[in-house]
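Feature request, filed as a ticket because there's no other form

It would be nice if the structure record came with a short human-readable summary line next to the tokens. Right now we just get the raw output. Example of a typical job, pasted below so the devs can see what we mean:
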Amino acid sequence: MSANSSLEKSELLPPLDPVAAKRWEHIAVQSPSAWLHDEVAKRMAQRLRFIRSPPAHWVHWQPSLGGWASQAVVSQQYPQSACTVIEPSAALLSHARQNLSQPWWQRWRQNSPRFALSPPQPAHMLWANMGLHMQARPQDCMAQWQACLAPEGFVMFSCLGPDTLRSLKTLYTQLGWPPAAHDFTDMHDWGDMLLASGFAQPIMDMEHITLTYPHVQALLADLRSLGRNLHPQRFAALRGKKWLSGLHTALQDTLITPQSSGRLALRFEIIYGHAFKAPEKALPSEMAHISVSDLRSQLPSQRKS
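Raw output as currently delivered:
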């Protein structure tokens, strides 16, 4: 597939409300890391064992969205590597500094992360955990990743896939309610978008994780920590107590299955992506000059009649 066709396909990704997505960036930073985000970070870090040489410098991309646990997980894997934490605004960067700065008595033992709005130097690895599915324009995000990386640097990212919350979305549809959550992009579309953004050799993988809850209140609290509904056609007003009571009943009736041992179950699709920065192509102005005599010397000799 060509870069142009990949880009055209990326424009057909599920739309998100850009205002709501920007608002979530500032809400997420004030909440504790979601358990699922921290668990995915540990699982993604296991894939770092297949990287031959540790990066001299890596970028932690927006930990406010992906959870604070990633910093310790990757730092344990690469204790000698320098790290720059990137957030899109000074306010978010301040929150990241508060959550990720090491105590003074530990700074001498390992590299302390730097905090910046952009990396001071090209990085050899960029780590982005569980944030891409909350981006209204993921193409722009990937372009920034590509700009952050040195030649032959690589990106590691994770996000939610289209099977996520399928049972909850089906329930809302059956009840005639607006969408319960925005749609999530398929891993093959993420791979196409990586290619269109200047990455090479994308490797995409996925797995399903089912979480169970003892009661509805615990389930709804966990969903609030995971993110927000960014669907453009979501319900735009406030719900009442009667609707909430009906939701509780519907969740109890639908999400408790024989396989969940009397607990409410929700299934999440986790997508993992890995790709290298593609080498820069020669500019059109960089032409090779070959003399006519050299060209003639390469032609097969012809017999004279």
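Something like this underneath would help us a lot:
The radius of gyration is 24 Å.
The chain has one domain: 3-279.
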